[in-house]
């Protein structure tokens, strides 16, 4: 690799970034969160730069980070019904917060030989990842097929002597639905089991929403909560907070090892070395926006979601799944003369990105919309383009896949998938040679939708490996 001037390196990076989805302007309705506040990026970048070289591994060596983290945790705890006993940790993101909640629950119960956790089938896949990593069996309980809310009675019935953790969402990512937190918390408490509320998305919005039932530490039985700062706190990625109701509950989250000749390793998260940059940036953003600012941002996003939800209900052929009470919408087709994957392609052609979600049990294929404060005021344009995209999808008709291709997919086994079979699927999807992803993804998504979940996982793992080759 040859040396390049600083200006040249930045020019290259800008050119590469030009091919990405936009992170500002409200047109990317997944993955990113935009406050639309001027100057916020510059503030965060400056704060990040001030602490980027600081190592969060040892707070006694860098006490500034200790102060910043305690400030951030106190802010989150105050917002989510905490008290003087509430403690927390800043993590790299929602997945790490969920992982740590699971490992803390597992390690607090060394008496359980084969630990399990009970969660609704709509809980975030991060908990399945935690189960895979930490050997905690996942007991996924079906949800109401219409509302997509967790069934509190069914979850209570699933708790047994092996259960170390119960999980619910506020809200669920797929449908934006808040589970019946109080009922589930009562069931967990009755069994003496920890109860985690995944508020990674809703934690900074729901406290400002109308008619939202209590979901935080004000609910008896809630023992931990995850809330992401890089979502609706509009902080740079990646920062999240895992809160515990008390220090006793947090203790098993920590890891210490003196079983080697170096320093005694002591970690509060899954990471050891941690840059202070993300923490400093989050602290600066929280301080700058303040309580009133966040309330205003939350109300803007909630109002935009309401307008979009009502507008989508008036588009012939579309329906919103469940009864979302936050800022997420799942939009499905109400007819079979078009498919939502084509709608996603048409929206992309109109410079909007909506995220396809595959059918799973009672949830049909749908489009996910993450609504942020940046969408406030542009609802009419989004709805007009969505209406035009449905019309174009109807004119195109459902994606047609040759019967022999569907038969081929049906005969594939995830554990014995060969490179030749994978190559055949890529060819069927129009992804051959160095062409990369096609401009339109409806055919690819239709093929993936035809694969059962285990096969889809394997196909996407192979595809990811190919991307990084």
Automatic annotation (TrEMBL):
GO terms in the biological process aspect are:
carboxylic acid metabolic process
Q: Which InterPro entries match?
A: GrpII_AminoAcid_Decarb, PyrdxlP-dep_de-COase, PyrdxlP-dep_Trfase, PyrdxlP-dep_Trfase_major, PyrdxlP-dep_Trfase_small
User: Which cofactors does this gene product need?
Assistant: pyridoxal 5'-phosphate
Question: Membrane-crossing residues?
Answer: none
Q: Which Pfam families match?
A: Pyridoxal_deC
Q: Which residues carry this modification: N6-(pyridoxal phosphate)lysine?
A: 231
State a single Gene Ontology molecular function. aromatic-L-amino-acid decarboxylase activity
The record's keywords, sorted A to Z, are: Lyase, Pyridoxal phosphate
Gene3D superfamilies, per this entry? Aspartate Aminotransferase, domain 1, Type I PLP-dependent aspartate aminotransferase-like (Major domain)
**Which family is annotated?**
Belongs to the group II decarboxylase family. Sphingosine-1-phosphate lyase subfamily.
Record protein name field: Glutamate/tyrosine decarboxylase-like PLP-dependent enzyme
Q: Which organism is it from?
A: Saccharothrix ecbatanensis
């Amino acid at each position: 690799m040859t040396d390049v001037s600083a200006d040249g390196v930045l020019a290259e990076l800008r050119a590469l970034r030009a091919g990405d989805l936009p992170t500002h302007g409200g047109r990317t309705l997944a993955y990113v969160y935009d406050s639309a506040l001027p100057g916020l990026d510059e503030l965060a970048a400056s704060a990040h730069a001030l602490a980027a070289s600081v190592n969060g591994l040892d707070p006694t060596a860098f006490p500034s980070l200790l102060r910043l983290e305690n400030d951030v945790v106190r802010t989150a705890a105050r917002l989510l019904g905490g008290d003087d006993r509430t403690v927390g940790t800043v993590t790299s993101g929602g997945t790490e917060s969920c992982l740590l909640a699971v490992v803390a629950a597992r390690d607090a119960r060394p008496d359980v030989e084969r630990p399990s956790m009970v969660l609704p089938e709509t809980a975030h896949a991060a908990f399945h990842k935690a189960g895979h990593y930490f050997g905690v069996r996942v007991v996924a309980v079906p949800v109401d097929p219409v509302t997509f809310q967790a069934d509190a009675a069914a979850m209570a019935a699933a708790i047994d002597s092996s259960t170390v953790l119960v999980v619910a969402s506020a809200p669920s990512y797929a449908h934006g639905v808040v589970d019946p937190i109080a009922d589930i918390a009562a069931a967990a408490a009755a069994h003496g089991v920890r109860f985690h509320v995944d508020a990674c998305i809703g934690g900074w919005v729901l406290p400002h929403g109308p008619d939202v039932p209590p979901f935080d530490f004000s609910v008896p039985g809630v023992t931990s909560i995850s809330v992401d700062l890089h979502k609706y706190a509009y902080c740079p990625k990646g920062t999240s907070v895992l809160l515990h109701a008390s220090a006793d509950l947090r203790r098993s989250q920590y890891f210490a090892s003196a079983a080697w000749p170096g320093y005694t390793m002591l970690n509060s998260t899954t990471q050891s070395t941690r840059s202070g940059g993300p923490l400093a940036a989050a602290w600066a953003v929280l301080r700058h926006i303040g309580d009133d600012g966040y309330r205003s941002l939350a109300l803007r996003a909630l109002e935009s979601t309401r307008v979009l939800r009502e507008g989508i209900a008036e588009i012939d052929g579309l329906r919103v799944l469940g009864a979302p009470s936050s800022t997420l919408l799942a939009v499905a087709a109400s007819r079979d003369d078009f498919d939502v994957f084509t709608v996603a392609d048409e929206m992309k052609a109109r410079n909007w990105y909506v995220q396809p979600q595959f059918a799973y049990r009672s949830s049909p294929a749908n489009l996910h919309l993450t609504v942020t404060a940046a969408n406030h005021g542009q609802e009419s344009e989004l709805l007009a383009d969505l209406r035009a995209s449905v019309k174009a999808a109807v004119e195109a008709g459902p994606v047609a896949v040759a019967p022999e291709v569907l038969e081929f997919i049906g005969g594939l086994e995830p554990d014995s998938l060969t490179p030749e079979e994978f190559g055949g699927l890529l060819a069927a999807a129009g992804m051959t040679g160095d062409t990369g992803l096609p401009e339109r993804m409806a055919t690819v998504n239709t093929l993936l939708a035809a694969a059962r979940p285990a096969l889809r996982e394997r196909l996407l793992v192979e595809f990811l490996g190919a991307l990084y080759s």
